[in-house]
Structures are given as C-alpha cells and as structure tokens.
Amino acid sequence: MLRVAVVGAGPKGLHAIAALLRGSWRGKDLRVDCFDANPPGQGAAYACGQPDWLRLNVHPRVLHLPPHPPLDEWLAARGTDPSGDVPRHEVGRYLRAAADGLRREAGETLAFHPHAVRALERRGDAWLVRHDGGSVLADEVLLATGHAPDHDHALRHAWRPAPGVLMVPGVYPVADSLSQAQVPAGSVVAVRGAALTFIDCVLALTEGRPRAEWPRRILPVSRSGALLLAKPAVPMRADLAELLARHAAQLPGLLADAAAPFEAATRATRAAAAELLTSQGQAHQEAVAAVDAALTTGFDPDLAPQGRARAALQRSNLLAEQDHASSPSWALGRAWAALYAPMVAGLAHRSPETVEWRRFSAASAVLERFTYGPPLPNARRLEALICQHDGPHASCTAPVCLEWLERGVGIAEGITGVGDDERPDVVVDAVLPPPGAQTARTPLVDALMVDGWVRTAMPRRGLEVTPHAQCVGQDGSLTPGLSAIGRLTEDVVIGHDTLSVRMHDEIERWAARLASELEA
Predict the structure, then answer these.
(1) Predicted TM-score (pTM) of this structure
(2) How many degrees, rounded to 5, is the angle at CA 79 between CA 75 and CA 84?
C-alpha cells in the first residue's frame, strides 16, 4: 500500500488530491490522509463565514477541481454571475463541495482529518506524521501549507507600545480583528501596507459598518508610496492582443538561450510594453523612455509627484474599461500578464545570481502592482473613499488619506516621520507573511529545515524543489518521500501563489510520479 499524507486542505492540497485520484489508483492499494485544522477549503482566505464585501481578485474560471466543474460554471449553475463581484466565501463553498465530491469518489481511500500536523519524523522508509489527534505513518508527505501563520517582520515582534495607540496585529478574520472594540468609530487609523489586504481593511471599516461608525481617518503606509492599480475589465484590441501573443510565443526560446534568463524576462516585458505604445503612434525612443521610467519609479512619468498615488489609481480605473491606452503602466501591466505563463515555465527551477535575482525581484514588485491589483469594482470603491485634497487640513469627509503614503512615513518599531500631534489612535498591520520559507514562520517547516530535510534556494525565498515537487535537503540530495507545492516554493516556482490550476504542472508531475509507484 502507498500511504500519502497531504498537509493542508486549501486549494493547492485539494488540487493535489484531485490530480492523484485522477491517476490509475482504482484497484490499487492507496491511502490518502489530508490534515488541516480547518475544514477543507476553509482557511482564512476563503472561509464560508466571510462577509460579501471580501471579494475574489481573479476570474473564477482559473479554479477547477474535478470531479466538480470549474468555479465559474459552478457559480453560474447556482445563479451567481461569475463575471461580477464574486465573494470569497463562494470560493470556500466551492472548495467544500469539491472536497465532498473527492471524498465520495474515493471512498475509504481518502480521509480528511481536522487536525494540524505538528511534526514529521523519519522512521525507516516512512514518515511519522504527528498531528493533534495522534500520528500516522506515510510513505509520501506533501506540504501544501499555504500562508504562514507568522513572519519575522510582523509588527507584533517589533512594536514598542506608544501611549494611547492600540496595535492590531492583523486584518483577518475581519469580524474579530477590526471590530469596534479594536478600531472604534471616529478613530484615526494608520495601516501598515497598501496592497490587497489594506483594501480589505478599508472595506471592513467602511462598507462593513454603518456610516456613523466609520473611522475618522485611514492612513496607509507603504515603502513603495503607491497603491495597486485596477485590473483591466475588458479585452485588449485584437491587433494589440496579437502583438503580445507574438512576444509570448517568442519568450520560451529567448529564456532557454539566455545566460541571464531573469534579466531577459524583464527586458522582454519592457520591449513588449514599448511596442504596444509604438503600435499606437508613439515614437519608439519616447515609448522606451516612458516604459523605463514607469518601471523605475512605479508611476507614469507624466504624473506630478504631489498626489500621484491617487492620480495613478484614478487613471487605472479609467483605463480598465478601454481596449487600448498610451499609458506606460497600462502597457507594462498588459505585457506582464500576457508573458507571465511562458515566463513561469521558462524561469522555474533556474538558479539566478544574487544581483540578477534582486533586479528581477525589484522589477516584479512594480509590475505586479500594475498587473494584479484589485478588480475594477473594488478599485472604484477605494477611489471613492480617498480624500481628494489630502493633507493635515483636508476638509472632505472621505476617510482614506494618502498623505502619509506620499510623505514616506514608516511603521516598524514605532511610527517615523510624524510629529507627536499626528499620532493615530490605532495601528493595523496589513502586511501578510511573505511567500517562501526565509522569513515566514511555519513551525513544521522550520523544524524540517533545522533537521536538514529541506533548504531554501538562496537568494530566492522558497523551498528548493525539483520539477516533480520533491524537496531538496541541506546536503543537496533529494529528501525521500517529502514534497512541497504552492506558496512554500514561491520564487523557485515563479507565481505559484495562485488559484490557477493551469499555470503550473508540478502537481500533475507529483501525482504522475506517485501513480507510477502504484503501478510498480
């Protein structure tokens, strides 16, 4: 019998189980045990009890867990418009239904256990999986732990209490973290972070409350000094889409032959974006300069420094419903999205030099803000909540003020760059644990690293794994019977922190390897 333990019952864990059960397991001796303290699919991101205004950030067609239909078809069959504002709790319901379908299909072959795994110990040719309800032996263990519960740079580890300032260490679950007791009505709230979690925080404190209970001011703080741009809501003009398709088709060969493939990927994105602009009549040198300036600064070069964070968001909201535009940030975002899938395939498991990786990481951070921001409805909600005349004497009643974001105020051990008379009432940490295992704190993975069973692929953050998801130990050899997928491997497998089941093939490779062992 082949005994498989899957640690984590989120989207990646369920995808792995579905892939394994699609193999030639029928009639074979196979046992799959899946462990998660939460019900299948019911982690913080997609819990069924979440409010409607916590919304999905990708198109639901990307998620498909057979034997269930894809998420968009499943939603449509239930009377929910998959092209509209899809609440994240609907994803949780889909994952729960998919897990039930897997359980019915597999029968006694599959069991879900409502327990957290605390330790993995090597016992001969097997792993002893210690969990809250006891222990089991497994020939193969798959780590699909998703978001880490903590990280080295979390505000809770460094914050020095300030008189009269309450520190809230996280946003989720919003009903507890951002309740009236934590964030009182009429308070001034500083938020560390300006990405998607910040937007959820803003919606919790506004859309999630009666108007009379809103905070007086919400002040985001971010090292980039920028907000995420709205995702495009319409397809590109056909000729522009064909242009990007041509660049995407050329990318695999370009990356395969490149001595520095990560720098080649950035150059290819810049070239595609510049061609988008020149195809619409812009001079070549002017287009190249505009693209390079936007990639360097994180803003279109024609935006004045004062108020440009709000102006960039406002522009992105306008362009999201256009099939063409002359904005370099729009062009870069469209180019990055079009080239992303072949880029992921071409860069996975490549080993860049430290300098090359740092340059790619810096460019990626900007490009992802241009590409993977909020859906247009949420971006418009945020724009409507931003004070139009930010500053200490702003008189408008909109609660979100970008003054601190643009002043470069910092939040670490305390708040830097403000006077004592500007102290907020509440500080909220809206920075999630990063992907990988360098600074994320996952006790199970940390213990495996101490024992030498896994290692990070420096300078990248993720666990080093093979294309078949097998973990590599500290000595460089394969760790028998131990594999990892998803957020743990980010940077080694580019873009693995996604709901998409089509962008990567490591899970299918893992399942095929185990199926071959069943056949042996």
Answers:
(1) 0.93
(2) 65
Q: Which two tokens stand for residue 332?
A: 């870069």
Nearest to 15 by CA among 77, 68, 54, 57: 68
Tell me the pLDDT tens digit for each residue of 237-248: 999 999 999 999
CA nearest neighbour of 332 among 406, 401, 383, 275: 275
Answer yes or no: are the C-beta atoms of 371 and 333 closer than 8 Å.
yes
Structure tokens at 346: 């071409």
Give the separation between CA 461 and CA 15, rounded to whole angstroms.
23
Of 11, 8, 18, 10, the C-alpha closest to 510 is 18
Q: What is the pLDDT of residues 427-444, one digit of tens each?
A: 999 999 999 999 999 999
Cβ(193)–Cβ(429) below 8 Å? yes
Tell me the per-residue pLDDT of 389-412, one tens digit each, with 9 for 90 and over.
555 545 557 899 999 999 999 999
Cα 326 to its chain centre, rounded Å, is 28
Contacts of 462 (CB under 8 A, 6+ apart): 435, 436, 437, 456, 488, 489, 490, 491, 492, 493, 496
- Which pLDDT score is estimated for 391? 53
Q: Show the tokens assigned to 219.
A: 């002040």
Task: Render 57-108 in DSSP notation, one character per residue.
Answer: SS-GGG---TTSPPHHHHHHHTT--TTS--BHHHHHHHHHHHHHHHHHHHGG
State the Cα angle at 92 between 194 and 486, rounded to 5°.
65
Q: What is the pLDDT of residues 273-312, one digit of tens each?
A: 999 999 999 999 999 999 999 999 999 999 999 999 999 9
